[in-house]
Amino acid sequence: MQLQLSRAQLDSDWKREVERRLGRKLADCYQCGKCTAGCPVSFEMFHPIHAMMRLAQLGRKDEALRSRSQWVCAACEACSTRCPKDAEPARLMTVLREMAQEEGLVNANEADIYDFHQSFLASIRRFGRVYEMGFIAAYKLKSPLRRGPQDLLTFPKMLKRGKPGLLPHKIQNVAAIRRIYERTKLQKATERKSD
Amino acid sequence: MELGYYPGCALKAHATGYEYGMAIEATLGALGFTLKEVPDWNCCGASAGHMTNSTLTRALNVRNLALAEAAGLKEILAPCPLCTKELGLAQHEVKEHPELLAAAQEAAEMVYRCSVRPITLVELLHRNLDLLKERAAAGKLADLKVACYYGCLHTRPPDVMTYDDTEQPTAMDEVCRTLGLAPVEWPNKTECCGAGFTMSRPTVVARLTGRLLKAARLAGAEAFVVACPMCQANLDMRQSEAAADAGLAEDLHMPVLYLAQVVGLALGLEPKALGLSTHFVDTADFVARLRGEPPAAAEPAQGAVA
Q: What is the ipTM of this complex?
């Protein structure tokens, strides 16, 4: 990684906010690389997990939030489990995912992963439980040409085995779930500034 | 014995892992457990919640925990480890941080006194090894070699999933050994299968399950035993892609059985009642040998890939 250090970045409000959400000092990480060594998806990352930690340490907000790595992270927790400094790299990924959404910086190249999560969550909001058939259809319809053909041959084999079922399960108190969604919405940075 | 039960979405009739739910209900029933479902439970948020909004996920799970508490349940069996982990993480966080508890209670409009403990099926069965020994004595299974695969979340994060060793868990192996099987030693027990990327990044799933397939076969295993609907689906549905990615010369057709199904077989339950005919990789031959029957070649293979 090319290093460009600036005092403003090294000691920024953004870094302090990351540390507050992380519950750790970013300087705890001494870049040993054990997290990346055990990460099952580092082969998919331009910035593997120890490099994400480094970007945060250096206060490189824009690169960190726009990175694809936090979306490719499988949240398997191997990194945090093995970190000799308990620096919580997996939780850093959670923090970066939430901040990227708040700042409108979700990397568009990871739209498949992001749309999948959003379709899944919309399904819970509507029924209180996940309706597989419904959310998969919604996910595919957001980009039908690309996502439509995927698994087309597997699908009939699934249906033959009754997977997934055709009808949703709806809980009784869906209204409570909707209110939970309303109250826990991520706050967009633009809205926050206008407060 | 009464037992709190949080089935989770993946185990219900409308989902890809419904046979896991079938097998659990049949097997635990045969063992003498009465399952008391958490009333009106909601989804734990799964990967999507964890990957996008931890505040939402915490509130969704505090609602579940509070519903269980109100129903008088001390422990709830959450057989999908993703659910166990999300419920357990919420429990862990709100117990340690009163401000998080207050926020989650407000969002969920519920009071929660932090008294519920979510447990995995592996923990439940391992705690009842004596009962298994006693009940399974008649239907002892053949000593076929299997790879017990725990996946990421049975033992992680270690302060939430406290039951077994983080890197070298053995509880599932001990359950299988008690039933007569011969679980192999292999190094990938807690590696990730790609979990929720099965549609959004299938190439990652193929790479990760390919590694598992190769390692399990090198260790001499004939089949996987799993206790997670994502692990099962990823290993079972995409096995030919996995074999190709791992550079294996041929598709291995390794059956991927749920632990609940294996226990059910040992109790003498019929494969069909355990949902064994719904898998993609055919299980009939392996199951017949497990039960000490002649190979099921004459029967039409129920679960053969179409």
A: 0.93
